[in-house]
Write a structure and sequence with these properties.
By secondary structure, the chain is an alpha+beta fold. Helix content is 23%, strand content 31%.
Length: 238
């Protein structure tokens, strides 16, 4: 890491892993009391870190290294037949990109999504404060992609703008429109937006080989992984 970036890191207390059974997870957090800024974030995201709200973290489990940071080199990405079908299927949607701030319409959609997908987990029954702490940050350059069908908001994708690319933070959508594969379509539109901004990568967060929830990230080709402190091509299945 660049010597000009001086940061203290703290390890979280072990807690049950959200993705793999019978495992404990630990994260390394950048000092939450320091004044974080985009310059530092730009450096850290290239070393496998992510953000949750204003916190910057990376998995740091002593006996497990299954969480792998992945990104799409968008200049090399060629749309597959499946991706072209997803684009065509959603061709009637109106996409609007707005600054990353709180909106009641977004929050109402987020609550519907969480109730449908995470109704019995730690994210259940989110308050406005929960939503704000998770997605809104006052020091990041953040965009909200709005997807509308006949003016009805059906999905929102949150992403950050960094020096090297866009970072997909989170996507939530109306469960009644699941047949459109809105999460998949959101990533495809973020790949396109990354190209339009003349940036190199779309960061997708962490991929875990044995976690079905994460398997969708392997569909985007080519894909790079942060392994042994460097970004390398991740072999794709035939």
């Amino acid at each position: 890491m660049n010597d000009q970036v001086k940061i203290n890191f703290f390890a979280s207390t072990p807690e049950p892993c959200s993705y793999l059974d019978n495992r404990k997870s630990v994260s390394a957090f950048a000092n939450p009391h320091m004044d974080m800024d985009m310059k530092t974030y730009n450096e850290l995201i290239q070393h496998g870190f992510r953000r949750s709200g204003g916190y910057i973290y990376r998995p740091h489990c002593p006996s497990c290294q299954e969480c792998i940071s992945v990104r799409v080199p968008v200049r090399k990405h060629a749309y597959s037949r499946n991706e072209l079908r997803a684009i065509k299927r959603n061709g009637d949607l109106k996409i609007n990109i707005v600054p990353g701030r709180f909106r009641d319409e977004h929050f109402d959609l987020y609550k519907r999504y969480i109730k449908s997908r995470h109704g019995d987990g730690s994210m259940a029954n989110p308050s406005k404060s929960d939503y704000h702490r998770f997605l809104i940050c006052d020091w990041t350059d953040t965009l909200f992609f709005e997807y509308r069908c006949n003016r009805i908001l059906i999905a929102v994708a949150v992403c950050d703008i960094t020096d090297s690319g866009l970072s997909a933070v989170y996507t939530f959508f109306d469960p009644d429109y699941s047949d459109r594969s809105p999460g998949h379509f959101a990533i495809l539109t973020q790949i396109q937006e990354t190209r339009l901004r003349d940036l190199d990568y779309l960061y997708l967060g962490y991929w875990i080989r044995d976690c079905n929830k994460m398997s969708y990230k392997r569909r985007y080709k080519p894909l790079e992984a942060y392994l042994a402190d460097q970004w390398v091509a991740l072999d794709q299945p035939s």
